[in-house]
Amino acid sequence: MKWPEPHVRAWYWYAFAAEVFAACALAIFLPITLERMAREIGFAGPDYTQPCSLTAPAPAGADGVVVDVDCRARILGRWVSTDSFSMYVKSTAVALQALGIISIGTLADSGYWRKRLLGTFAATGSLAAALFLALPGTPHGWLPVVAALITLVGNVCYAASIVCANAFLPGLAREDPQVVAARDEAEAAERAHDEGAAGEVRESVDEEARALLPDASGDAASERATTRYAALLSTTMSRLSSTGTAIGFFSGWAMLLLLLIPVTLGGGKTRSLELALGLCGLWWGVFSIPAIIGLPGGRKEDAPHHWLRRAWARVGGMVRPSEMRELPNLFTYLLAWVFLSDGELKEDK
């Protein structure tokens, strides 16, 4: 098995680093931690004067059915259901993610800026997650707010960094040796077609007239070479992406198994969850270093003029009715995904 190219290896390193935060922190430990922190400072209904108990069994109703205690916490001056607190944070994070990834779209198209944005978001997000190591394990009224802010920063930085990382894929695919060979073949066929179209001066008028006609065989060969190059480029991008996904999946599960050790030994208490989240941040930050070093950076250039306005104008152009009519399947899929992801979030909750 051939070893991947240096730039591809660097890209794989980031998948290995960042997916731990997504698989372990965002999907598992953060929702549990946020709810736990809110419940530790919450009060049970209906009068909300008695602190919520994390260990006491829920009371049974008159029909013998166990009912949940309505536990609410005073957060930022408002009574918030502790069961819903993590969902509020998640919803806010999704909204901020949408704003962030759209805004950096133009900068991510630049080889110079995408690498620097990737490094900035990876460093900021991993550092924010690592701050959980500094949080106390005892209840405090300010703790859920700080944890929520850390969660928002981590969510936005992770999503933005993935956008920047995926922007490397077309360039990495074009560097693949097979893709390079296919591109050279397509360019050679195009040159041969252009040279053949010029033809040589024929002795008779009929031959001169025939020389003016397109060279069907040359045009077909050039088209075949170009089609093969485009198909190979697309296949290579898919292969790199799927390999990175597999590497991230492996790293996520490996880290999850390791994190179960301190969480289990700590009895699932808040401090053990904070430790798990902090270790996710450290993993993300440490293993991002070879990615940031090894990925291509491009030549230094100034930020594109009006990059923020251009990014949002491009999105506005995509959602025009005329564009929707041209790509009905794409927009149907996106609309379905809105409901599917929302339902999945509620089901997970």
Automatic annotation (TrEMBL):
Entry's Gene Ontology cellular component terms: endomembrane system; vacuolar membrane
Entry's family note: Belongs to the ATG22 family.
Name under which the protein is recorded: Autophagy-related protein
Superkingdom in the source lineage: Eukaryota
GO terms of biological process kind: amino acid transmembrane export from vacuole; autophagy
InterPro entries hit by this protein: Atg22-like, ATG22/LtaA_families
Gene giving rise to this polypeptide: ATG22_1
Record keywords: Amino-acid transport, Autophagy, Membrane, Transmembrane, Transmembrane helix, Transport, Vacuole
Pfam families hit by this protein: ATG22 (PF11700)
Region Disordered: start-end pairs: 183-205
Bilayer topology annotation: Multi-pass membrane protein
Record's function text: Vacuolar effluxer which mediate the efflux of amino acids resulting from autophagic degradation. The release of autophagic amino acids allows the maintenance of protein synthesis and viability during nitrogen starvation.
Chain segments annotated as transmembrane: 12-34, 117-135, 141-169, 244-263, 275-295
Subcellular location as annotated: Endomembrane system; Vacuole membrane
